[in-house]
Amino acid sequence: MVLTDDEEAAIKAAVLGGSADIDVHWILYCGTLVFLMQTGFAMLCAGSIRAKNAQNILLKNLLDACVGAIWFWATGYAFAYGQSGSDKNWFIGNNYFFLSKGYEGGDGYHNWFFQFAFAATAATIVSGAVAERCSMTAYAAYSAFLTGFVYPVVVHWVWSGTGWLSAWKATGNRAAWLNVGVVDFAGCGVVHMVGGAAAGIGAAVLGPRIGRFAGENPGPIKGHSMPLVVLGTFFLWVGWYGFNPGSTLYIGGVSTVASRVAVTTTLAAASGGVANLFIHYKLSQTYDVAEMCNGILAGLVSITSACPVVEPWAAVVIGPIGAVFYTLGAKLLVKLEIDDAVNATPVHYFAGCWGLLAPALFARKEHMREAYGNADVGGLFYTGQGNMLACNFVALIAITIWVGALMTPFFILLKKAGWFRVPENIEIEGLDDSKHGGSAYGIELAAADVRKAAERV
Amino acid sequence: MVLTDDEEAAIKAAVLGGSADIDVHWILYCGTLVFLMQTGFAMLCAGSIRAKNAQNILLKNLLDACVGAIWFWATGYAFAYGQSGSDKNWFIGNNYFFLSKGYEGGDGYHNWFFQFAFAATAATIVSGAVAERCSMTAYAAYSAFLTGFVYPVVVHWVWSGTGWLSAWKATGNRAAWLNVGVVDFAGCGVVHMVGGAAAGIGAAVLGPRIGRFAGENPGPIKGHSMPLVVLGTFFLWVGWYGFNPGSTLYIGGVSTVASRVAVTTTLAAASGGVANLFIHYKLSQTYDVAEMCNGILAGLVSITSACPVVEPWAAVVIGPIGAVFYTLGAKLLVKLEIDDAVNATPVHYFAGCWGLLAPALFARKEHMREAYGNADVGGLFYTGQGNMLACNFVALIAITIWVGALMTPFFILLKKAGWFRVPENIEIEGLDDSKHGGSAYGIELAAADVRKAAERV
Amino acid sequence: MVLTDDEEAAIKAAVLGGSADIDVHWILYCGTLVFLMQTGFAMLCAGSIRAKNAQNILLKNLLDACVGAIWFWATGYAFAYGQSGSDKNWFIGNNYFFLSKGYEGGDGYHNWFFQFAFAATAATIVSGAVAERCSMTAYAAYSAFLTGFVYPVVVHWVWSGTGWLSAWKATGNRAAWLNVGVVDFAGCGVVHMVGGAAAGIGAAVLGPRIGRFAGENPGPIKGHSMPLVVLGTFFLWVGWYGFNPGSTLYIGGVSTVASRVAVTTTLAAASGGVANLFIHYKLSQTYDVAEMCNGILAGLVSITSACPVVEPWAAVVIGPIGAVFYTLGAKLLVKLEIDDAVNATPVHYFAGCWGLLAPALFARKEHMREAYGNADVGGLFYTGQGNMLACNFVALIAITIWVGALMTPFFILLKKAGWFRVPENIEIEGLDDSKHGGSAYGIELAAADVRKAAERV
């Protein structure tokens, strides 16, 4: 007998306490990585568009983080996870508005922090799609609406303990739908499809940029800085190491799951990137850096649901298929003359659709038990069971309808009111000159170099 | 009885050991995030100035990190926290110079790492303020003086167990001043006011850049790369998730505090950013990205003292008031014709002053108990008590006087000796050409593009 | 008696479990930091070369991460650490190809993740050295060969429990060589010398860039963006806080070691940077930012073997000597007309050689016990023992021979086949225009600015 009673009590509190310190540490760490994705989106978007609108897109990305924080504090978390004793329902949460006092003793602030970072991620997916022509006011309104209402409701459906699609009910009193519910671990459906669908709808309602599909020489509009694109992509990849592994929500007892997630996430990103590089080399005879980046992102999105329940080899299959979905989605948008300036919709919506279905095919029962406490259901390819496929497919449809039904009229109203798009002359001149006090880049750079360059011309 | 005696002993060592492993992990993680802020300052400063001085400012930021490490190893930590048995005093530490051997068994190396990152942060605040005209030698001398002496003394006053302003004495044998001491959790006063005051004094003594307040067309001098400014701002925000939550110094038993800190930090940044965007839209009819960034930073600075002891709603109040302090500070500098090239003084000193007073108004007793082990004193608005306001106000004055009394003669001596400022012709030409072997940017960029561009002109 | 049997069991599992959760958390965190170094290399390399090849180098860095992941999954980890019961050998691992099932219960996926990030680091060292003229196909082939075979074998030798150079045998049944084995904690030899030697050989076989050592005005070729260089350097420094401290492989029970590593890493980086700034100021009368960066990196490389076993003061000695090795190495390459576009060979190979010898001089026995469980052997300067120096010197020779014997014919074959180097006209025009669809930077930047700039010329 080594320990005194006081020591035993202290150890019990430290190790078995309701919200153990190590879990909080894990979630604060992972949440910070997810927040780093804001930097990634900002750099990726800025690099992918023309320099004359760089300040504008940077400001939109900053706004996403800020407006997202404020609205997710005000209403978002409440709609997503707010539950009080008897008053639980399958559709929407209704407690903890403005992180009111009762919250702290309940869920713990670290969970708000982690979930906020997710909400801001969902919101910022849109910024690139509507870049170079969307007004600032409209964008701020959209950002508030998505983080404050549209996104949280989907969270409630899939991730709260009472949502109609939740897989977590399986471990509670009420049974999950088809004995499994929707297996969307880190949010192919909840985050990426929501953001990606909103992006596609926004771009469609807003209309293409001048010169993209009409005018003298219509065609793709190149970005202005590939280093920023690659920098952003790497940040997103790094951030995904918080996004996916952190979705365990704890580390105590689930570190094996978090480890597997880090591995499958890595392999899907890598294989998705290589696959997309080859696909687009076949299509264009060019080693296209932007397509390599989007392939990595498509791979990351694709594994986001399945990451804890599949084997590493499956990640190497899932990532490249995600690149195919991405590429087909991008082709479809061009055919429909929807101008998504950074291909956010193909990356997040189309690869997200595939990713949401992937666990239903590749999930192993052993891993389902570890990650979901549910050893009864596995993926179609292992078990022949179609339960998960049915659940996840319903989620795919439901999320698409929900976002479509809310965002389409929202964007159309903005358009009718004349608030959505900047005037044509401003679009041509560039938003930075008229709205943001001039170019994102200083003239002095050119001043010195141009003289020397001019001599060489 | 499940555990053997050996297992009990092992568990005791792991969980209750003097410096538990989880705490070390937490501090190494948070310290690394704080170190990332060096990257943030470097990018923010580089983007905020003209391209012709970009190499110069980058080198100064690299020097801060390096010189700061060396001096904080040599003397800084010793002056801040070095204590030997009976030889403790209220003014300055006097042990552990060069991390001498006794240190390791005492405080633990992770604490040096964390505190070094803070010292380097304090130092680097100045680099932007004196940019585009300060000589490299003078800057290196300043950096050594601040990290080796000026800053550590303030640390000793406020954060060591024996400093005259310390709140931590409340939990020790000797009572803290007014039964509370100075509540400056992560260092509005200790870090930001010290760095910010040094920045303002440096800029004032150095004099404005040519063309800023005199000459043909005096006026604000725009930076050369807004993507770098935004990149730097995001890094600083990310780094603050180490700076503030890590100031718990442990995670074991205080994870609730760290969680609350992450939330209040987020909300103050977000609300400060939005507030400043609107303030400057009102002032200039421009959605000014740099002001959005400075608003976020002012919000972050503002919450740095109060972060563990206030409610989330208070953060949403504190951040925007920080933006107001920032804006008024910036106006004041312009009126005084003090040229702070990146507005470091308004962000760190003026918003820092507000931030130091904020907990004295908004602190909840329950949270004071959790964060400071002191349930007797709360903020004025909750309790009507003025103790904390008195303490923190005295700290505000004391820190300002200390930094002013040391840095003013230091900078004036540098100026008298002719070491502080580069010659006028070099300032006009740009420091990079004469001191750093040419432009920060390669001619080839322009060479290819200029030809095509010239055709379009 | 406070705890029930169930609670005791739960505490035992959580704290003493085979792979404790806190260790997994630590390794996932450190591995993510190491992965961030990919971003660092990408930005550093891109900034260090001409803008006309920026897309090309960015793509190579993306490929490193992706190809490295796929090959380290397929064969790399197996060759490095794959061991089955009786079938262990001193040369190469032979189990766990494609992370086959038995793996998970064994080493744990977090270890694969951490080791993958190291492999990708070793691979990416080469990208800068062969920049601006190496073909994409050749680079992908090299990357696969290094991460899939060359590097893992060295890992097996030095870091596995059975390798012929391993220090870890000291704690097992069979004795380590000379009672100590090779003390290469985080991989001066295993990672940096392998990558650096491959870089030097690649650059030598490939031949210099046009205009570097011959032609009209031969001479150093400047990079195009110093902010990217500094950004990359800072990321590498940050990433090193995962690379070195994470090489404890656990945090439970070794947090003191990890803490010391963070401190020595910091001080070697800082002192290496300052030393190299002064060395090159003496050589060129220029405060050269790129040399400051390379000095920091040389300092970081230099401490990578010795970090857990030396005192902080020794780090301040080791770092600057690393800068001297770097500088001499760089001079040597110029003399041999080997064109390493970013000086990767001097940073990683030459400073790596010094770093591998450093612990043999400066290691303290007390620290050897903590880090290696070996209290019998210390550094030459403390103990007069030459054991470690002999072991580490043999490793230096063995690694150099191994890499040379494999990479030299590999690169020569690529060259003979005509696959290694792009045609001369493409090199002159820039790889981006012909291979990657145009410049990394958008014309619009210049378009607006050039007009205004032209007016000022």
TrEMBL record, chains A, B, C:
InterPro entries (alphabetical): Ammonium/urea_transptr, Ammonium_transpt, NH4_transpt_AmtB-like_dom
One of the GO BP terms on file: ammonium homeostasis
UniProt key word Nucleotidyltransferase: no
Transmembrane parts of this sequence: 26-49, 61-80, 112-131, 138-159, 179-206, 226-243, 249-277, 346-363, 393-414
Alphabetized UniProt keyword annotations: Ammonia transport, Membrane, Transmembrane, Transmembrane helix, Transport
Gene Ontology CC, one term: plasma membrane
Membrane topology label: Multi-pass membrane protein
Top-level lineage group: Eukaryota
Gene3D superfamilies named in the record: Ammonium transporter AmtB like domains (1.10.3430.10)
Keyword Transport included in the entry's annotation: yes
Pfam family, one: Ammonium_transp
Domain Ammonium transporter AmtB-like: 26-441
Recorded GO MF terms: ammonium channel activity
Subcellular location: Cell membrane; Membrane
Family membership: Belongs to the ammonia transporter channel (TC 1.A.11.2) family.
PANTHER family for the chain: AMMONIUM TRANSPORTER
Protein name as catalogued: Ammonium transporter
Species whose genome carries this gene: Pelagomonas calceolata
